[in-house]
């Protein structure tokens, strides 16, 4: 296995909280895949959840070498958790097609968050 891409992103939770206060559900629809919206609606801290998801999606898009745009929409990148609670990526649409073109077979996601920041690190392998 070889590394095909690496991405990282750091998000200020206060910035996401301000965006959430201004745009609310519209922001969630723009950033989250349908299944992620259920977790958002149930979250006692929706701005922190949005910050973590945003960081993960930005890191994944950077690892794909595209950033968010034509080859990866926010809603094409879904953050899921395995039975042990470890974060994993599930790609859809243009992001999945681009990953297939690159030969991506595995992804690794690491998330860290504190009160003020959410950090994500993504590695893509063949």
From TrEMBL:
Residue limits of the 4'-phosphopantetheinyl transferase domain? 5-121
- GO CC, alphabetical: cytoplasm
Q: What is its EC number?
A: 2.7.8.7
**Gene3D superfamilies attached here?**
4'-phosphopantetheinyl transferase domain
Lineage top rank: taxon: Bacteria
Task: Report keywords, A-Z.
Answer: Cytoplasm, Fatty acid biosynthesis, Fatty acid metabolism, Lipid biosynthesis, Lipid metabolism, Magnesium, Metal-binding, Transferase
Purpose: Transfers the 4'-phosphopantetheine moiety from coenzyme A to the 'Ser-36' of acyl-carrier-protein.
Name this protein carries in UniProt: Holo-[acyl-carrier-protein] synthase
A Gene Ontology MF term for this entry?
magnesium ion binding
Q: What class of enzyme is it?
A: transferase
- The protein's gene is named acpS
Record-listed Mg(2+) binding positions: 9, 58
HAMAP family associated with the record: AcpS
């Amino acid at each position: 296995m070889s590394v095909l891409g690496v991405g990282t992103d750091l998000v200020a939770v206060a910035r996401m909280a301000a965006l959430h206060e201004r745009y609310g559900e519209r922001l969630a629809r723009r950033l989250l895949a349908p299944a992620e919206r259920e977790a958002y609606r149930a979250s006692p801290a929706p701005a922190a959840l949005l910050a973590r998801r945003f960081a993960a999606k930005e890191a994944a898009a950077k690892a794909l070498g595209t950033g968010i745009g034509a080859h990866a929409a926010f809603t094409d990148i879904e953050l899921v958790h395995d039975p042990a609670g470890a974060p994993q990526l599930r790609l859809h649409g243009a992001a999945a097609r681009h990953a297939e073109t690159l030969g991506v077979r595995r992804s690794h996601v690491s998330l860290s968050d504190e009160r003020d920041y959410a950090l994500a690190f993504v590695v893509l392998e063949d």
